[in-house]
Amino acid sequence: MDRSKIDQHSRVVVLTGAGISAESGVKTFRDNDGLWENYRIEDVATPEAFRRDPQLVWRFYDQRRKQLKTVAPNPAHHALAQLQAMLGPERLTLITQNVDDLHERGGSKAVIHMHGELLKVRCTRCRTITHTEADMLSDDQAETLPHCECGGLLRPHIVWFGEMPFEMDFIQNKLAECTHFIAIGTSGVVYPAAGFLQIARQIGAYTIGFNLEPPENHRLFDQFIQGKAGQQLPQWVNSLALQV
Ligand code: OAD
């Protein structure tokens, strides 16, 4: 039996990282001397940072939210949506570590954002999650922090360092039954996402990695495809279209 073959009976789990959005103009994490868009991660992406200086954190996330409006999905996002349409959303689970909405805008359905979403905010008191594209700190009221109707302080719906990623039970269940695991544009160093490859290997899934450079774990993939995701992924999906 050819384990690599993807067909109508396959159950595919795809994990994407910052590399899939790089060609859309969104910066990756590990290429900037520990800085993220000129900020130190510990100043803007931890619960302690938010307690210490919520305004700085909101200013940072407002910038990220604004930046989203200036970028568009690239051929890699579209190729994944095409693959999901070929197999059906119940047979292709798309998990992303990215907080942008480029998978959705590229046409993918039921995207699992395990590290949260830039366009959602959460009340620190009643925990209500709201989708909003508005600026949270308006320029003329820079001192005013955003609050929920219940009076609680709003925070970005983002998983910060030291916090538990979202949807882990759902993800574990999907990994436990997958026949194929595909990682795209992720350095494979941030857990728990970095451990998905091992879980998939243990249950005998066929594993494929796409990355610009071989990441540390590239030898663990059954197949590793090097190059820009925006070029390699559409080619690969088109070659599958003939099989499915
Ligand atoms: P990284 O910045 O660690 O890794 C990006 C990966 O994408 C690298 O391995 C690059 O070689 C690769 N890459 C860059 N451009 C590419 C391209 N055009 N095509 C294909 N690959 C490309 O980003 P992640 O692995 O996503 O967590 O980082 C994981 C997590 O670390 C993030 O979600 C974030 C960060 O801390 C949180 O915010 C909780």
Please provide a written account of the structure:
The chain is α/β, with parallel strands linked by helices and 244 residues long. It is built from 9 helices and 11 strands. Strand 2 (35-36) and strand 3 form a beta hairpin. Helix 5 runs parallel beside helix 9. The two termini are 16 Å apart. It binds 2'-O-acetyl adenosine-5-diphosphoribose (OAD). The site of 2'-O-acetyl adenosine-5-diphosphoribose has 23 residues, from helix 1 and strand 10.
**If you average the pLDDT, what whole number results?**
94
Strand numbers in spatial order across the main sheet: 5-4-1-9-10-11
- End-to-end CA span: 16 Å
Q: What is the subunit organization of this protein?
A: single chain
Helix % is 25-40%
Shape: elongated
Strand content: 15-25%
Q: Describe the largest sheet.
A: 6 strands, parallel
- Total number of strands: 11
- Structural class of the secondary elements? alpha/beta
- Poorly predicted segments: none
Number of helices: 9
What does the secondary structure layout of this molecule look like, with pairings?
Blueprint: E1 12-16, H1 19-22, E2 35-36, E3 39-40, H2 41-44, H3 47-52, H4 54-68, H5 75-87, E4 92-96, H6 102-105, E5 112-113, E6 116-123, E7 129-131, E8 154-158, H7 168-176, E9 180-184, H8 196-202, E10 206-211, E11 223-226, H9 229-241
Parallel strand pairs: 1-4, 1-9, 4-5, 9-10, 10-11
Antiparallel strand pairs: 2-3, 6-7, 6-8
Helix pairs in contact: 5-9
Residues 17-19, 22-23, 28-30, 45, 97, 115, 159, 185-187, 190, 210-213, 215, 228-229 line the site of 2'-O-acetyl adenosine-5-diphosphoribose (OAD).
